[in-house]
Amino acid sequence: MQGRPRSLSLTPALVARVHRAIEDSGIEPGVELHNDADYDDWVKRIIKTHPTPGSPTLLFAYGSLIWKPEIEHVDEQIGVARGWHRSFCFRMTRFRGTPEQPGLMMALDRGGQCRGILYELPKNDLEGQFGKLFRREFKYKPANSMPRWITVETTSGSIPALGFVMNRASPLYAGNLSLEVVADVLAQACGHVGSGAEYLLNTVTHLEAKGIRDRNLWRLQALVAQQIDRKSGIANPPDRQILNEGL
């Protein structure tokens, strides 16, 4: 049940101040990418360890998979993954950052809890669906955002679902950063696909549309808005978004 409409400090106008036209810097020297054989191995491994073979396969979405799904789904419901939380703990030197000004991406990290969306995947061609999904979620070795079966609580009980959790052994793991540090990064970093501020805005607005409010993300979006204002030296524009009234 959603509460009263809330004013979102971070707006498209503020996000536009962070955006810059940046060329793709490409793969950094020494970085090894997953190949088709690697992805096939991941798919076989995850399907082999499916907790409930023959039952519907569920995917837990907590961020961009909510506003930019990679694969089709036949049903959805809200669920809570306990023992995991949203965290901007994944350092990016490409896509939404550059080697000169790295960005931060959100991942599921250990501790706390995370309210997200459970998607029920079509039963046909699970291998193909996973292959497409894995190619989107992780590219470098070792995998930064690893597929893993996690337990998600729903109104009808606890059920297993596929989630993508942060690999703390990855050299891209940034650790547990304060919201102030994260806000400073997101207020500046931009790569060839867009900015971290844009990613945050998309995530918060689409979570809200699903009836999900993450207190840390709400505080973070306000901090990012303040940082953008401070760095650009322009007063906050009067286009603050009101949520719970449609997107």
How does this model look, in words?
It is an enzyme of class 4 (lyase). GO terms for molecular function: glutathione specific gamma-glutamylcyclotransferase activity; transferase activity. Its EC number is 4.3.2.7. The strands form three sheets. This protein has a five-stranded antiparallel β-sheet. It has a two-stranded antiparallel sheet with strand order 1-9. It has a two-stranded antiparallel ribbon with strand order 7-8. With 247 residues, it is α+β, with helices and mostly antiparallel strands. Residues 235-239 and 242-247 have low confidence and may be disordered. The chain is built from seven helices and nine strands, in the order βααβαββαββαββααβ. The two termini are 17 Å apart. Helix 1 crosses helix 7, helix 2 (36-48) crosses helix 4 and helix 6 runs antiparallel to helix 7.
Using the 3D structure, state the CATH architecture. Roll
Anisotropy-based shape: globular
Strand adjacency order, main sheet: 2-4-3-5-6
Count of β-strands: 9
Helix fraction by DSSP (H/I, runs of at least 4): 25-40%
CATH superfamily: Gamma-glutamyl cyclotransferase-like
The number of helical runs is: 7
Chain-averaged pLDDT: 91
Biggest pleated sheet: 5 strands, antiparallel
CATH fold-level assignment: Hypothetical upf0131 protein ytfp
Element pattern in H and E: EHHEHEEHEEHEEHHE
Give the CA-CA distance, first to last residue.
Answer: 17 Å
Highest CATH level, the class: Alpha Beta
Beta percentage is 25-35%
Number of domains: 1
Tell me the radius of gyration: 18 Å
Give the low-pLDDT segments: 235-239, 242-247
Backbone structural class: alpha+beta
Organism: Phyllobacterium brassicacearum
Keywords: Lyase, Transferase
Protein name: glutathione-specific gamma-glutamylcyclotransferase
Enzyme class: lyase
